Automatic annotation (TrEMBL):
It comes from Dactylosporangium darangshiense. Pfam families: AAL_decarboxy. This is Alpha-acetolactate decarboxylase. Transmembrane segments: none annotated. Pathway: Polyol metabolism; (R,R)-butane-2,3-diol biosynthesis; (R,R)-butane-2,3-diol from pyruvate: step 2/3. It catalyses: (2S)-2-acetolactate + H(+) = (R)-acetoin + CO2. The lineage of its organism: Bacteria, Bacillati, Actinomycetota, Actinomycetes, Micromonosporales. Its EC number is 4.1.1.5. It comes from the Bacteria. Keywords: Acetoin biosynthesis, Decarboxylase, Lyase.
Length: 267
């Protein structure tokens, strides 16, 4: 990636973030300030559609915060402050290339609307209850970011697959889990309404990266030592559907889709 291309994409992300912030400050009149942009659906991922046509560079034109995965299901994605982190199956993390592609991701321009301190010792259930108690409605999408020190956090990361691709419930079996103790870092993702199950992941979908941006993954469980959570409501969902042969031939409404998603996500 050339310095010129890097500077160009950085400027585009800065300009879009500035416009979104201005719109939010002056009445929230812009769709950009309220929108989650998503490529493909969780139902397609369940059916083994692991190759998408959207690059990370293109994805970052729609937001500076989000999560997803990479083509061939090669690890987890976490986007913070306009930087796309590639979380690998061995628990390591690196910055993704702008030319990498994704089969599923959701991004937004993150502007915190609510900040809440997290009581020391809070586990995943307590943090979810804390956030739920601060929401105006469970019918909106919420971007959630928790930064602080974690007494313990348990993660796992999907492994790169080879064609013919298995369904997601098979691909996520037997994955190696990583437990980090006494680590600073950021837990980020979305709380999505139940009615979006299959389009997205209903409920909480969170990824983690440590303060050094060297380790991370899909968050299974955690306990907070100290920290605060930031919340931002979103009322627009833009779903961009791929036109790849694999997506066009996939089954997007499998039986027991909610159970399959819970199994695949470890929740």
């Amino acid at each position: 990636m050339s310095a010129a291309n890097s500077s160009y994409h950085a400027f585009r992300r800065w300009a879009r973030a500035t416009l979104a912030h201005v719109a939010g400050v002056h009445g929230g009149g812009s769709d950009v300030a309220r929108e989650v942009y998503q490529t493909s659906t969780m139902g397609a991922l369940l059916d083994g559609v692991y190759d998408g046509d959207v690059t990370i560079g293109e994805l970052l034109e729609h937001g500076d915060f989000g999560l997803g995965t990479f083509n061939r299901l090669d690890g987890e994605m976490l986007i913070l402050d306009g930087v796309c982190h590639h979380l690998r199956a061995d628990g390591s993390a690196r910055i993704a290339e702008l030319t990498d592609r994704t089969p599923f991701a959701a991004v937004t321009w993150f502007t915190p609307e609510t900040r809440i301190p997290v009581p020391p010792g809070s586990d995943r259930a307590a943090v979810k209850a804390l956030i739920d108690g601060a929401l105006a409605s469970v019918n909106l999408v919420y971007a959630v970011r928790l930064a602080g020190t974690f007494r313990e956090i348990r993660t796992r990361t999907v492994m790169e697959q080879r064609p013919p691709y298995p369904p997601l419930t098979e691909a996520t079996k037997g994955q190696q889990e990583t437990v980090l103790d006494g680590v600073d870092g950021t837990l980020a993702g979305y709380r999505t309404p139940d009615y979006e199950q299959g389009i997205s992941v209903a409920g909480y979908h969170l990824h983690f990266i440590d303060g050094d941006h060297r380790r991370g993954g899909h968050a299974l469980d955690f306990r907070v030592e100290r920290g605060s959570v930031e919340i931002s409501a979103r009322s627009e969902l833009h779903v961009s559907l791929p036109r790849t042969p694999q997506f066009l031939a996939s089954n997007l409404t499998p039986a027991n889709i909610a159970g399959q998603i819970r199994q695949a996500e470890g929740g």
